[in-house]
Structures are given as structure tokens and as C-alpha cells.
Amino acid sequence: MKEIVKINLDNEMDLILAHKRSMKLAELCGMSNMIQTSFATAVSEIARTVIGRDRKSVLRLMIELLRNNRKNLIAVISTNDKPGKELQEAVKYANRLTGNLKVTEKNDGTEVTLTNAIVLSGLINDARLDTFSQYFKKKHTAPGNGRKAERERTAI
């Protein structure tokens, strides 16, 4: 599995970043607009419920490499909190959008994994995966300003 993007989910601005980056990675993977939107909305729905209130939450967007050159787009949202009613409702909604969602309770919190098959996965090789990673590193951070500049660009 190759991690492409990692976002700390601290506040509502991070929720916007999570949605935009999920949408963009799905687009880079060649997914249709409908699938891009469904995937990004499902990620946002789960992320919304784990932000704030002294939680340590992280979104990782990855590409899973399978046999026969198949690949999956994976979003893993981890939090140090136990699943509450709000997360359970979000999981139901997100599952209707993606159809492939798994919730894992761990000693130190909860992990929600959303999986979406990449139909045109034969076009995505190791070099292209590196390009995806570089795209997010170069496009979304400014030297010396870090997340503040990233959030300001998103707000524009």
C-alpha cells in the first residue's frame, strides 16, 4: 500500500482539505465524477465526526496494490476516540455512498477504512504513484508557511 496524502484532522478547515484531496486523488486515478463525489463525500462525512474535542484524528489516502495489476483507492480515518452515535450514523451514510466500508475498534481508538476499486488501474504504475505524491506535496504546501498557507489557499 502506498500512502499518497496524510491530513491531521484538527478543525473544519481540515475537513475542507480532506474533501478536496479525496476528490482530486479520485480524479487522478481516472474515476468518474460521480464516483469522485461519492468517495469524497463519504470521506468528509466520517472526517466530520472525528474532528476536534481533544481528539487526535488523521486521514490517510492510499493506493492499495493488488494482484493482476488491480488497485484500490483507500481512505483510512483514524481517531483516538471510541465510536459514538454520531460516528455510527456517519458510517451508515458513508456506506451507502461507497458500499465498501470497514470500522475497526482498537485499544487506542477507532479506524474507518473506505475502499473503492480503481477501474483503470492498469494506467497507474509506480512512477505515476510517485507523481501523485509529489503533486500533493508541491501543490499544497508553501515553504516556511506550512499548514497556514495551505488553509489560506483553500479558502480562496
DSSP strand count? 5
Described by the principal axes of the CA atoms, the overall outline is globular
Largest sheet: 5 strands, antiparallel
CATH superfamily, by name, is: Histidine kinase-like ATPase, C-terminal domain
Assign the CATH topology: Heat Shock Protein 90
The number of helices is 5
Q: How many distinct domains?
A: 1
Integer average pLDDT:
84
Quickly give the CATH architecture. 2-Layer Sandwich
Which structural class best describes the helix and strand composition? alpha+beta
Question: For the CA atoms, what is the radius of gyration?
Answer: 15 Å
Which consecutive residue ranges, at least 5 long each, have pLDDT under 50? 142-146, 148-156
Question: Your description of this structure?
Answer:
This protein is an alpha+beta fold. It has a single domain (2-149), classed as Heat Shock Protein 90 (2-Layer Sandwich), CATH 3.30.565. The chain is built from 5 helices and 5 strands; from the N terminus they run E-H-H-E-E-H-E-E-H-H. The protein has helices at 12-28, 33-50, 85-98, 126-139, 146-155; strands at residues 2-8, 57-65, 71-79, 101-106, 109-118. A 5-stranded antiparallel sheet has the order 1-2-3-5-4. Strand 2 (57-65) and strand 3 form a beta hairpin. Helix 1 (12-28) packs antiparallel against helix 2 and helix 2 (33-50) runs antiparallel to helix 3. It is globular. It starts with a strand and ends with a helix.
